[in-house]
Amino acid sequence: MDPCYRLAMALTQQGKTGEAEEQLRDLIARHPELAEAHFHRGNLLAASGRYPDAVESFAAAVALQPQFVDARVNLGNALQALKRSEEAFEQFNEVVSRQPGLAAAWFNRGNALSDLGRHRDAIASFDRALELDPRLGQAWNNKGAALERLNRHEDAIDCYRSALAIRPDHGQTYRNLGAALFEARRFAESVAAYQHARVLDPDQEYLFGALLGAKASLCDWTTHAADTASVVAEVRAGKRAIHPFIFLGLWDRPEDHQACARIWSNHHYPPAGMPLWRGERYTHDRIRIAYVSADFHDHPMAYLMSGLFECHDRSRFETMAISFGPPSDGPQRKRFEAAFERFIDVRSRSDGDIARLLRDLEVDIAVDRKGFTRGARPRIFAMRPAPVQVSYVAYTGTMAAPYIDYLIADSTVISTEVRPYFSEQIVDLPGCYLPNDGARPIATRQPGRAEMGLPEDGFIYCAFVNSWKITPDMFGLWMRILQAVEGSVLWLMEHSTDTTRNLRTEARARGVSADRLVFARHIPNPDHLARHKLAGLSLDTLPYGAHTTASDSLWAGVPIVTCPGAAFAGRVTASMLLSLGLPRLVAGSLDEYETLAVRLGQEPDELAQLRERLAANLVTRPLFNTALSCRHLEAAYETMWRRHQAGEAPSGFAVLDLSGASE
């Protein structure tokens, strides 16, 4: 053995890795045929985080000795660290073909497949690893993560518990267990798992924010003010503290939202070093629009957007759906499939595959319909597959990502003073940016109060929002409204038994009988719209307001009171009401909101007038004019494309109001 090699090994054992790497580099310069020297140098480089150099060293070792399994495994790991998952998979696949009894290789292969979005294949690979080594706890953990991506949350929970039976002190697994329990709507258990994870490993990135999200859904407000202050301070310090979407529900400062989104996107979804679209000019007869989403099924946003997709002018636009959501054969999915010229199911494909598909299809404008919401895959857009990339009806805030050129909004949801806190160029649609389906069915059968668990007498307020949107301040305001309006009740959605119990407890703590809260179960959307009619008035939330929920209420003929916040997420209801010509329902402060909600609960004549005006304006105003909304959106696309074709950089603009044009 060469003396330099022995010296390098000795230096490595002494922790003098820099000197050891220098010895190996000198040895390789003299004897480039020594695969072991390349291998050990690669290990040192990888240990110091120099993964590109490590890849070169491991690749050299493999080229010299193709049967060198350890070098091939480490090459795959280094490629994985660089997010070069396809190349990593090739290496791990080669290893298992050479040594099919190596559990660690199957495990690594599964990791690469997971990163590629091939979760079913990843699960099969993890299963093979566990057959070979049932005590491989990390394989149980990573199998659970793959199951979660397939929405098999209960199966994921079982996997995480199997992992914890092997390693009960593993904080990351407890964190993953908390996430799966959250998705299974087992919020109390989720909070407990996250708290245990913090005890075991308090420095995990974004763990604190995940805990706050679970506590928000549970309506556990015991430390709400202190927790919010802490997470805001961490965001301002540039720490990886919280997911941007959770942060929107806790805080109403757009400048902090931008900082949080920038931390998240830079960490998880930085721009690709080599974009897929590299300046080529397309000359299509029609503008090719691709809507990229996981929501092309029975989903709240599907109820709003189906009609818009059907209204696209096929003489000017070629539309396609790129669907990476769950499979479905329901009527909503069939409606989507008919609405688009192409409906492409890509749920089994990797982010890279999907991005290359968009490039191969020569998509002119790629529309991100997920942003940072549940199930999002921003890495597709980070690879820049299209010349123009747009966020629309996705994430109600900035993604702070340079590869999203435009955010489609309106002048109400993003006020002039907060626009500096958006990285995208803002496109203002006339009226309200949020599309609505003017043909949404409402069940003809009208349920009675008793059937819905409501009292036969008394005023009914409703707030059918997700529980995480209910803050202690908002709930306290609602309880004061109930106290002021004798016999009134508040009708909420049932999200979990633990959440319901906590809200009843919070009502009693504020001097309101728990039986004045009534909880509604989830039912099909036409029936849900029909039962709305039992309510007298809807109540909006802050800082994250109602979106689809507000549309539901208005379409069912039930007015909603709102108080717009500073951020996009808390101004959507106001935009809808202004578009409908109902500014009286937009309060200038929370005190005004409370006063208005009380007065409308006590003055039936005033409320009746508002309901009559709402019913008339649903027909005459543009909010539910789906064809008009589509024309405005198409005008926005045409302006974006015209500017791109002229070589101009993306720049914000307002779309001309076409409501006066003939149909």
Can you describe what's shown?
Helix 4 packs antiparallel against helix 5 (69-81). The model has no long low-confidence stretch (mean pLDDT 92). The chain has 663 residues and is α/β, with parallel strands linked by helices. The strands form two sheets. The protein has an eight-stranded parallel β-sheet with strand order 3-2-1-4-5-6-7-13, with helices on one face. Among the domains are: 274-438 and 632-663, Rossmann fold; 450-620, Glycogen Phosphorylase B (Rossmann fold). 51% of the residues lie in helices and 8% in strands. The protein is globular and about 95 Å long.
Poorly predicted parts: none
**Percentage of residues assigned to helices:** 40-55%
Second-tier CATH architecture of the domain at 274-438 and 632-663: 3-Layer(aba) Sandwich
Straight-line distance between termini: 85 Å
Q: How does the major sheet shape up?
A: 8 strands, parallel
What class, by secondary structure content?
Answer: alpha/beta
Given the structure, what is the number of helices?
28
Q: What is the CATH class designation of the domain at 274-438 and 632-663?
A: Alpha Beta
Residues in β-strands, percent: 5-15%
How would you write the strand order of the largest sheet? 3-2-1-4-5-6-7-13
Counting DSSP E segments of at least 2 residues, the number of strands comes to 13
Summed over residues and divided by their number, the pLDDT gives a mean of 92
Quaternary form: single chain
Rg calc? 28 Å
Here the CATH topology of the domain at 274-438 and 632-663 equals: Rossmann fold
The shape, in one word, is globular
